[in-house]
Each structure stands twice: as structure tokens, then as C-alpha cells.
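Can you please make up a protein's amino acid sequence together with its fold in C-alpha cell form to help me picture the idea?
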Amino acid sequence: MPAGPQLSRPPLERMLRIHDELARGALVNCSHLVRALEVSRKTIVRDIAFMRDRLDLPIEFDAQIQAYRYTHPVGAFPTVKVTEGELLALLVARRALEQYRGTPFHRQLEIAFEKLAGGLRDRISFSPADEVRAVSFKNIGLGKTDLASFNALSGAVLKQREVTFAYRKAGAPRAVARRVRPYHLANRENLFYLVGHDLERAALRTFAVPRISDVTVTATTFERPADFSPEKFFADALGVVGGRGDYRVVIRFTATVADRIREREWHESQELRELPGGALELRLRLGALSEIEQWVLGWGAAAEVLGPKELRENIRLTAQSLHRLYHG
């Protein structure tokens, strides 16, 4: 049985190999390169023409030795011109990959990074021990993701196939069977969520992927609504939980934490107002109050809710409960 067709090396990889051979003065002709790169003579001729005509490399064919050569020394292959700032950005991106560890995206992103960095390999070392030590990432509370479930769900999202799974709501003692049309996978606050149409409840629902188990991808396909978008779906949520309300949230922060509020984008709707003495007022427009309540409590006495009334009352009742807990 004849061997199947071999996969060709990427054009950039072939040209880098040709450049290396020419730069060290090796005998470079089509026959040699066809054997070394396992491609056709036509491909070699096309690569060399591209290097000469488009990359302005000084290649000529020497009829006396029946080989290609550089007419004068060439230092670096002109594949990628990288500034110091771009190099730093590339290294920062490499560090940022760690937040995707434990998901199929991690390996895919690593491969993409290696392709980007491939042209610099001879001039820059990307050894993990020697990467930019002044840059690091620390994400608190990284979500735990079961890879088998994640793979099944991501495949169902891409192929638009209905799924069944067991899902345990937060605080519930046991999981319940669900049948869902999966629309989107989102990473919000270091945790993956599935957004989909729950067929039994006839409504869009958000499911925390770590609480999904026993995933089965069915043969039933569906069409995702044309008007669905993750940006629209999460527009009225501080993090994940949205709602049908229209709450105008106003929070006053003391000067001691105001800089930390100014330094980040908390929500698309946010508006900041400077107050006397370095204090700050944050205004948000949200569809639900549960997440903002927990967020405000995390700032302790440095944050005061001015509105709406129901949020201020919820905070007051929680404060009373905390007082009883610690002074009971």
C-alpha cells in the first residue's frame, strides 16, 4: 500500500531552514532542499523567489557550483521585527496562559504562542525560568473544571447540539437532570459558566461548569438565536447573575479605598464622581442586587450604599446579623 501524503512544513519554517543553510555557507540546491524539507522542487523554487523578491534577501544562483548562495553576509532572517514593548507584551501573554491551565484552551494557546515566538527562537530564549520575572499573575479562587465535561460542552456549543447533564444548584443537596441547548461558554471571575436554553424551564439559564456532571451530547441539533450575544446577556450583571430589574446603584467609598476603585473597570455602566477629601462615588446600573450586595460587603465600612433603598436595607440587615454573630 503506498504511503499517504506527508504533511508539509509551514512556509516560514521552510524559509528559516533555507536561510540557516545559506547563512552558514552550505551547498544549497533544489535537490538537497527537496530531500531535507520533503517538499516538491516547485515549492522550493517558490520559497526562494519569495525570500529574494519579497524579503529582499541577497540570494543568487551560482552556475559554477550549481547552488544558491548569499551574495553578502545576512545576520538575521527578516521575519518579525519586534520592539522592546512588543517583546514584553509577548512575554506577558505567555505568563497569562497560566490562568487557562486545566482547560483545553491552555494547550491550544500554548501552540499559538509557540508559533508566534518561533521566528525569534534563535535570538531570544523563552525558557520558563528566564522569562520576565518582573511580571506575574495571581488569580484568587481559580475555578476547578472537569476536562471531560468541559470538552463535551465546548464541542456541543460549537456543533450546536443539545446536551443533558446533572446539575446541582449552589447550596442544593443533590443534582437534578437538565436538558439544555448550549449557546455559550464564558469565563467570568475565574470560573467557567455555560449559558443555554433550558428546555424544561423554557428560559435562558446560567450553569456553573464545576457543578455540571454526567454530560451527554445528543444527536439533536438546534439553531442559536440570531439575537443572542454574550455581551447582551451579561450586560446587566456585575459578574454572572443578571436579572430583569433596573437598579440604579450608588455607593460612596472612603478616601482610603477610593484609589482601588478608580484603578479598575468594574462594569460597563459605571460612572465615577469625585467627592471632597478624596472620597469617591460609584454609580452602576444593574439588573439584580445579589452580586453587588456581596461585593459591597467585601469593602467593609469603607463602602456605604446610598441607593437603591432595598440594597441599603439588605446591607443593614446583614450588618445586624454579623453583629449578633460576633457579639452573641
In short: Confidence is low (pLDDT under 50) at residues 1-7, 121-132. The chain has four domains: 11-70, 84-130, 147-233, 247-327. Residues 144 and 153 are 15 Å apart (CA to CA). The chain has ten helices and eleven strands.
